[in-house]
Write a structure and sequence with these properties.
With 155 residues, this protein is of the alpha+beta class. The protein is built from four helices and seven strands. The protein has a single domain, classed as 3-Layer(aba) Sandwich (Chemotaxis protein chec).
Length: 155
Amino acid sequence: MNGNPNDVVFRVFCEVIEQMAFMFGEELETEAAEPVSEALCARMTFEGPMSGSMLLAVPDAMCPVLAENILGLEPDDEEVMEKARDALNEVLNVTCGNVLTSLAGEEPVFDLTVPEAATIDSDEWQALATDPNTVAVQVDEFPALLRISLNSSEK
């Protein structure tokens, strides 16, 4: 494994969010991640030399901005909210793939599931924000929470 997984998650996510959504990430202490009443959380799993899961949670207010920036939609486009889940899922998918390559190298092959986004409430957000394995990133004016869980596997 190449590097601390949380450091890799932070670095890769900031690169992905900048390249895909033209948004900029900087370090945020998890304790500073303000409580969010409504959020969307995308999750996916992977198997290969390492198995595990990765998730990305963002406030609902960030989702339309992602859809607008990634898909080139206008703010008043009726499809913005409909496409917001797709945009969040795609950010997680690209982030997870790049994190795994950074951790394991170019050679290993991983099977990734399709990311699925679901609404989480303020209690779930707070539990994630206070988890010591969570990486918090300030993306423009929005907090984003990421967590990777790794298990060794014999593949």
